[in-house]
Amino acid sequence: MALKILPPGGFDFLSLGALVHRLDPGIIPFRKATQCQIHVSGGEFNVAANLSDCFGLSTGVATAMVDYPIGDLIAERVRAMGVRSFYKRFEHDGVTGPNMACVYSDQGHGVRAPVVFYNRCNEAAAKLKKGDFDWKQIMAGGLRWFHSGGIFAALSATTPDLIIEGMQAAKAAGAVVSLDLNFRAKLWQISGGLEKAQDTMRRIVANVDVLVGNEEDLQKGLGLKGPEVESKSKIDPSAFLAMMDAVAKQLPNIKIVATTLREVHTTNKHDWSAVCWVEGKTYQAPTCELGVLDRVGGGDGFAGGFFYGLMSGASPEEALRLGWAHGALLTTFPGDTTMATLHQVKDFAKGGSARIQR
């Protein structure tokens, strides 16, 4: 495999993105809620947290932090997951912000789907720009892997250039660079529309080795055209694999593309698989039936396990199974970050079961 991953030393993994807090009333819809749990999240941070807490890697996050109680709560959870923080700090004015973004997300139940909405008004992370982080100093001890995402890229006119700056610094340090495409139409709608999204993401992806994203991310986020393929189900990888010729031709720097495959039968019953394309070869994980407690963060759980596999020298097939297993386990816990152990992940990746462990 042409992916050159440095040996351990310094940071294993550094992510760049926005931290958020998620209010979760469980199965009660917000319009009837009387209490909520608070989960700390953010697509990029979640991967760093998973790699630290479950997989034992040395990880960090570069992000914005606001000096007020919500910021303190979030920073405490970052520390609890063992992730080292590199914060650009902002003062809160006591009234309007800047703020740490808030996500509202009930869990749904059965035939009732989860509902997610946001308050990203005056978000501190959207104010981040080139020059806010001393990448040379952060990466001075060595860095093996750098990661960012499409949601962070959509937050403002300045975040894409910061992502590119971080990626180029990581490349200079010899790190592998990955991006979760995470195309969100609502975010891009207020950030310039589809054309702006595709122009921006193509500029970023020119610096990337490993992409996480499905065929919709590739088509809408990058403007890639793929053949019309009729998938038998959401778990069928045909549509995704049909895009890989376009990836190989138009994005020759991309060595690996991976995504989860999920068929939702009810809110709590999903079929789950994953697929990856590695320099022309394709691999697919098994399909299992998930009894879902909280689906948020499953994709980041997959990315963490997959990246761990690649960094630990596993074959592409083994790495894919580790990602598939960790993503599956993550949906059985409340919140957006892992509560799984490495032993549980490896057991499930090998075909373990849910029999009681005595």
Q: What would you note in describing this structure?
A:
With 358 residues, the protein is α/β, with parallel strands linked by helices. The protein has one domain (13-349): UDP-N-acetylmuramoyl-L-alanine:D-glutamate ligase, CATH 3.40.1190.20. The chain is 34% helix and 24% strand. The protein has helices at 43-53, 69-80, 135-138, 150-153, 159-172, 185-189, 193-205, 215-222, 238-242, 244-250, 298-311, 316-330, 342-349, and strands at 11-16, 20-24, 37-41, 59-67, 83-91, 101-105, 116-119, 143-149, 176-180, 210-212, 256-266, 269-278, 281-284, 288-291. The strands form two sheets. Strands 1, 4, 5, 8, 9, 10, 11, 12, 13 and 14 form a ten-stranded mixed sheet that branches. A four-stranded mixed sheet has the order 3-2-6-7. Strand 12 (269-278) and strand 13 (281-284) form a beta hairpin. Helix 5 (159-172) runs parallel beside helix 7. The radius of gyration is 19 Å and the shape is globular.
Task: Describe the SSE topology.
Elements: E1 11-16, E2 20-24, E3 37-41, H1 43-53, E4 59-67, H2 69-80, E5 83-91, E6 101-105, E7 116-119, H3 135-138, E8 143-149, H4 150-153, H5 159-172, E9 176-180, H6 185-189, H7 193-205, E10 210-212, H8 215-222, H9 238-242, H10 244-250, E11 256-266, E12 269-278, E13 281-284, E14 288-291, H11 298-311, H12 316-330, H13 342-349
Parallel strand pairs: 1-4, 1-8, 2-6, 4-5, 8-9, 9-10, 10-11
Antiparallel strand pairs: 2-3, 6-7, 11-12, 12-13, 12-14
